[in-house]
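Entry 0007
Protein: DUF1492 domain-containing protein
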Amino acid sequence: MTHAHTDQHDADQHLICEQWATWCHTRRFYGPAPTNGSALGKLCRAPANRPAGGPDAISSAHLASLHLAIIAQPQALDRQVFELHYLWRVRNIKRAADELGISRAHWYRLLNAFRARIFSAAHAIQSANDADWLQC
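Output (C-alpha cells):
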C-alpha cells in the first residue's frame, strides 16, 4: 500500500471507531460505568456527543461485529488505550500516557495496532455470520 492509501485506510478505521463509540454510548450498557475513581478516570470526561435519549442508534451488523471483536480482547494495555481514546475521549493524551507509564508515541502505536487487530477480527466475525446466514 502507498503511504497515502495507508493514511486514508487509518482515517476510515478511525471514523468507524468513532461511530462505534457513539453506538456504545447510545446503548449505555455496553461500556463500563462512567464514574471511575482511578487516576485515569479523573482525566476522562463524558463525551460531548453522547445522545440524551435511549438506545436509538442505527442497527449495524458491522458495528456489532466490531463490538464483539473488541470485547473478545483481553484487558491489556492496548485495550485500555483504545477505550480511553474512543469511549472516554481522553483529551490530554500525554498525561494519560504518563499515567499508564508509556510515552505518547507508544500510546499511538498501541492504538493503531489494536485497531488493526480488531478490524481483522470483526471482518472474520462478520464473514462467519454471513456464511451461517446463507446456509439457513
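Curator remark: The radius of gyration is 16 Å. DSSP finds six helices and no strands in the chain.
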